[in-house]
Amino acid sequence: MRKGILTIAVVGLLTTGGLTACGDDSGSGPADSAKTPKIGVILPDSKSSARWETADRRFLEEAFKTAGVQYDIQNAQNDKTAFQTIADQMITSGVTALMIVNLDSGTGKAVLDKAKSQGVATIDYDRLTLGGSAQYYVSFDNETVGKLQGEGLVKCLTDQGAKNPVVAYLNGSPTDNNATLFKNGYDSVLKPKFDAKEYVKGPEDAVPAWDNAQAATIFEQQLTKASGKIDGVLAANDGLGNAAISILKKNKLNGKVPVTGQDASTEGLQNILLGDQCMTVYKAVREEAKAASDLAIALAKGEKKETGQTVKDPEGGRDVPSVLLTPKAIYKENIKDVIADGYVTKEEVCAGTYAKLCADAGIS
Ligand code: BGC
What atom of ligand 1 comes closest to residue 52's alpha carbon? Predict the structure, then answer.
């Protein structure tokens, strides 16, 4: 009996609160079709690359704050169930647009389809969801990312005067469409060299979920399999590159075997300064975040923005309206460009023992 009265009282309070809130923001009345933008973002994890928490979160916040829109950025920490729960909560909380970096295309598609069925606008951020239904795809030209890595490795092997070098591959996650595109890019440079017997194809493995710790184990096995004869490592990002470097160090081979990377992380840039890493690929995440934010806001207002470009989803066969930005190769000489762009700070990169190496690399 008592419980019943209490319940009614609580419901009464909630109703009153709800009505008050509604009256406050409905100045233009229910006929107004444009929604007040509220953007939900689901980042994939914080371990496969430092970028998601140090760059993407920061630049997305910057873009949303500048545009004066409400937002909610969460990280699924590589947990597919959590990914779906976060999406459900965001949809229930009334987001007008959902931006996802999928953990795989299956769960990505489920989330996108559900959002769509509830009238929530959707954007594939950085990774295309194969067979998915996102209204836009915002990323970089990922085949070019891979091409820059392949060219970088060739440049570093040439600089070292390597003859018939054995090249090992540490590919990204098999469930990430970007990993496929990166590989297409570096294969386009390196396969002709293998075919011409100029280079020798060494061991190749994909690293599940881009797991850096697992990458070290995998690379150690590769090195054993190749009897210690690996002359160059095509690592798909800085985290995988650092894993390979840690094993090369154990074998006193660091600095002798060029390793590639991607993301211009502080660690990757420091490995380049040390001479342990050959190059990285810088992707201006600030521009990626701004492009995605602009599209999400336009969608909330019921506007249709032309992107002038589409990407074919190889699984769904759809031409997805896309924004693809241009990546840039980074060597010791132009690390300063990444700092000048505000992606990392000189204080981080040039801390402690790196100060002298920074000065030598012209970072002032
Ligand atoms: C991103 C890379 C990142 C990797 C691991 C890819 O989809 O494009 O920038 O290093 O995922 O998180």
Answer: 12
